[in-house]
C-alpha cells in the first residue's frame, strides 16, 4: 500500500461507493440542475425543495412509507402485514440513496443484502413468526459500528480495506430484534469535530441548508434521518456526537448513561484500554416515542450477554399516572465563557415559559453551579491523554481536514482563559489521571447536591451555543460535553427554527468568550432545540420526562 497515494485510495473507494447506487435510483438532471453549486457553499434548502416527490423516482406508496409514519406506526403495520419488510426496506434504501447524492451522508451501502434480509423476514411473517420487536425496521448505523466481513474505515484512508472480523454487539442485537441494516453513515476525521467531513467520503451537508454543518460526529445519521432516509439511526456520543447532529438537523436524539446501550466492539480512533471516559450509543429519529422504543427493545435482550462492557441492568417501565404529573424542572444557566446565540436563548426561554404555563415548576440553575466551562476543560484533558487518532492520519499521508484544525485552535483559545486544570500540569500519567478523576468527582458531587437540594425531576437547557452554523466554525461542544463528564442521560428535542426577523442583530464573541459568531441571515431557518437530562442511570425517567416536555411544547 505504501506506493499508492492517499488520493488514489480515496478515489477508488469513492468510485466503488457510487457504483452501489442502482442506476434507476440516480437523480435526473432536471433535479440536479436546479441545485446551487458547490452545494456546501450555497444555501440549498433541500427539505423545502421536496426532491423525493419531484424526482419521479418514488411511487406514492414509497413516499407514504418514508414520510407518513412514526417508528411505532411502521412497526405496527409490519406486524399486521399491511406493509412488507421488503417494500419498507426498498423505500428507505431508495431514499437513502437520494440523500447520499444530495448530502454525502453515507459511507457504506448494503442494498442487495438488506433486500435479502427483508425477504427472509417476510417469509418468517408468512409462517406466523415475528422475529422480534423491531421486525422489518430499517436501521442505519454510524460508520464506527462493525459488520462482519465488511468495512469500517472511520473515514481514515489508512483504515481503508480493513475488513471487520466480527459484528459489533449492538449490530448482533439489532438483527436478533428483527431489524434490517442497510447503510452506514458519515463521520468526521478523528470523530472529534462537529463537521462530518473526511478525505474519503467528503462533507455531510445539512438538509435544511447545505451551507450549514450537519453536526458530528454522527452527522451522517442526523442528515439521513432528517431527510427521512432512515426511520431510525444509531450514533455514538462522547462529547455530543448524537445530540449535536440532532440539534443541527432538527431530529430527536438520545444519549444514554454509558454502558446501558452496548457500545463495545466498534472501530475506534483511540487506543485500546482508554476506558476512563466512555462513549455511549443511542438513537436518532423523528419522534420522541421512538427513542424509548429503541432503548426498551435493546435492553430487553440483556446486552451484557453480548458485550462485556455493558451493564446488566434491565429496562424499567415507568407507569403512566392517570393525570400528567407536574415536574420540577431545572433551567441550565448560560455560561459566560460560552454565550448563547439569540435563537438558542429564545428557544430555551420559550420552552421554560411554556412548561410554566402548563403548571411545571422551573428552577434556575446559575452558571456558577452548572460548571459548564470547568467540565469542558476537564473533558479535553482526558481526551489529550490519547493521541492515537492523529497517528491514523499520518499513516496515509492524508491532510488534516479544516474542522479538526479549527477545533484545536478554538480549544487553545479557550484553554488560555481557563485555569481549572492548571494544577495538574506536569504530573506523570497515572497521577494526572487520578487528579482528573478527583476533579470529575467534585463536579459530580456538586450536581448531586443540586438534585437533592432542589428536588429536581429533570433539567432543560441549550444543547449548544448555536444552531447549525457555517461549515468548520462550530467549535467546542460545552453544553453537551457537560453531560458526558457527569455521565447523565440526555435527549435533544427540536422546538422550532431560527429567524433573522425575530433575532435580527448579529452577535460577535468578545475577548474571553468562545464560540462561533451569530450570523442571522446565514443561519435563518436552521432548527432550534432544547436538551433534557436527568441524573445518572435514570435513563427511563429521562425519556419519560422528554415525552411530557415534548407534548407540552407541542400542546398535545
Automatic annotation (TrEMBL):
Q: Which Gene3D superfamilies match?
A: Amidase signature (AS) domain
Q: Where does substrate bind?
A: 191, 217, 238-241
InterPro entries in alphabetical order:
Amidase_CS, Amidase_dom, AS_sf
Q: Which reaction does it catalyse?
A: a monocarboxylic acid amide + H2O = a monocarboxylate + NH4(+)
Pfam annotation, one family: Amidase
The catalytic site is made up of 142 (charge relay system), 217 (charge relay system), 241 (acyl-ester intermediate)
Q: Which UniProt keywords apply?
A: Hydrolase
| Keyword Isomerase on entry | no
UniProt domain Amidase: residue ranges? 87-543
- Protein name (Swiss-Prot/TrEMBL): amidase
